[in-house]
């Protein structure tokens, strides 16, 4: 509605139109922040059912190329962090399929020194960067909400390695077949 009002005032009162546009922009920015907050709290059912190792294994099985999944997690991360890492790994694997022209990929999940780490690698063409598109920058924003980081190493010609790291403590291990190397 605000944009419609601004459009109507554009010729008659440009200053009023500019104020309405600024108001609409602020409202849109607030809505996007709210949406990000909601998305960070989303916990896919596969995580509740299988935990992070099983959920990542399920992602790997759905891809059109072989993906090795190695897990060294002596416990369970808080649900919000599991969700953030799950979505980050999903985006990295989606990029492998879309852009890497890879024949093979791997995911390693581990926890050391109070940090949950996921490393996604592929043998593709390389050239991935954080500065392009919306996928990897979105992953960076999701991880930053938990003081996490993403590092992309992807020289032209490959291979690509994406490090995802979030500080957290783990609770006791799940009693699941997915808590060991998958």
Describe the structure in your own words.
Strands 1-2-3-5-4 form a five-stranded mixed beta sheet. Helix 1 packs antiparallel against helix 2, helix 3 runs parallel beside helix 4 and helix 4 packs antiparallel against helix 5. The chain is elongated, with a radius of gyration of 20 Å. The termini are far apart. The chain is 47% helix and 19% strand. The longest helix has 28 residues. The chain contains five helices and five strands. It folds into two domains: 40 residues; 122 residues, Histidine kinase-like ATPase, C-terminal domain (Heat Shock Protein 90), CATH 3.30.565. With 182 residues, it is α+β, with helices and mostly antiparallel strands.
Overall geometric form:
elongated
In DSSP terms (H or I, runs of 4 or more residues), the helix count works out at 5
In the predicted model, the low-confidence regions spanning at least 5 consecutive residues are 175-182
Structural class: alpha+beta
CATH domain class name of the largest domain = Alpha Beta
What CATH calls the topology of the largest domain is Heat Shock Protein 90
Largest sheet report: 5 strands, mixed
Question: Mean of residue pLDDT?
Answer: 86
Distance between the termini: 52 Å
From the 3D coordinates, which CATH architecture of the largest domain would you assign?
A: 2-Layer Sandwich
Number of separate domains? 2
Proportion of helical residues:
40-55%
The helix/strand order is HHHEHEEHEE
Q: What is the alpha-carbon Rg in Å?
A: 20 Å
CATH superfamily of the largest domain: Histidine kinase-like ATPase, C-terminal domain
């Amino acid at each position: 509605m605000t944009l419609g009002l601004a459009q109507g005032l554009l010729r008659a009162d440009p200053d009023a139109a500019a104020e309405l546009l600024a108001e609409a922009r602020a409202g849109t920015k607030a809505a996007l922040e709210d949406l990000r907050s909601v998305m960070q709290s989303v916990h896919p059912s596969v995580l509740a059912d299988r935990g992070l190792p099983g959920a990542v294994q399920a992602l790997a099985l759905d891809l059109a190329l072989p993906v090795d999944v190695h897990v060294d997690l002596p416990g369970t991360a808080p649900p919000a962090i599991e969700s953030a890492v799950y979505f980050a790994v999903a985006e990295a694997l989606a990029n492998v399929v879309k852009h890497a022209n890879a024949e093979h990929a791997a995911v390693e999940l581990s926890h050391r020194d109070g940090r949950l780490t996921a490393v996604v690698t592929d043998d593709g063409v390389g050239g991935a960067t954080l500065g392009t598109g919306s996928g990897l920058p979105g992953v960076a924003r999701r991880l930053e909400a938990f003081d996490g980081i993403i590092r992309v190493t992807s020289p032209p010609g490959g291979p690509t390695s994406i490090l995802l790291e979030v500080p957290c403590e783990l609770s006791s291990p799940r009693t699941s077949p997915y808590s060991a190397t998958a």
